[in-house]
Specification:
Blueprint lengths: L2 H11 L20 E3 L7 E2 L18 E4 L7 E8 L12 E10 L4 E2 L9 E2 L22 E9 L15 H8 L3 E10 L1
Parallel strand pairs: 2-9
Antiparallel strand pairs: 1-3, 3-6, 4-5, 4-8, 5-7, 8-9
Length: about 190
């Protein structure tokens, strides 16, 4: 099993990952690197207000915050994804809904809609523009989504400008050798 497959499988089993055995972060605290949202309960359902516009929502990305940052983190990156029906979660590639990197190490949160325009963005779900794609599951269909934050020891080998050519595969490959730890927030829609 390669690193990508292990990371993908482990996100289905647990929603939070301990980083380096609970090592101290730069503030001296210890614990599990954690991603949370005032908008979405971990393991809960996406609130109507954050659904796609055609389902009556705002289409905005959720507010996020993270804590117990691994020691040595110089920046963060975020991905939101889900596996379409029929895609093997152990070997398949998920659909990406948000690829965001170049988040400074001084940050510990993003507002709903990322109104501060923090970071650099990759391709949306449809691969036609950069940015966030809000979940838009058809009526009667329930999908599971994951938002993952990576604490990074260096800069990923990705463009420093918003880039529609950066997809899930390129994004996760750029994280492989510089990931200090990651944390997940999962929800359904």
């Amino acid at each position: 099993m390669n690193l990508f497959q292990f990371m993908t499988l482990s996100s289905l089993i647990i929603s939070q990952v301990s980083c380096s055995g609970g090592s101290s972060d730069s503030t001296g605290s210890t614990g599990t690197f954690t991603l949370s949202s005032a908008s979405i309960e971990n393991g809960g359902t996406l609130p109507d207000g954050l659904k796609c516009e055609s389902n009556g929502g705002s289409g905005l990305s959720p507010a996020l915050s993270w804590s117990n940052i691994p020691s040595g983190a110089v920046e963060f990156a975020i991905v939101m994804f889900h596996y379409p029906d029929g895609v093997d979660t152990a070997t398949g590639t998920p659909s990406q809904y948000w690829l965001l990197w170049d988040i400074p190490a001084t940050a510990n949160s993003l507002s709903a809609g990322n109104t501060e325009s923090v970071g650099t963005e990759g391709s949306n779900k449809d691969g036609v523009e950069t940015g966030y794609t809000s979940p838009c599951s058809p009526a009667g269909s329930v999908k599971s989504y994951t938002i993952r934050i990576y604490a990074l020891s260096g800069e990923p080998s990705l463009s420093g400008i918003d880039d529609v050519s950066v997809n899930y595969t390129a994004f996760t490959a750029a994280m492989t050798d510089i990931t200090l730890g990651y944390a997940d927030l999962t929800f359904t829609n």
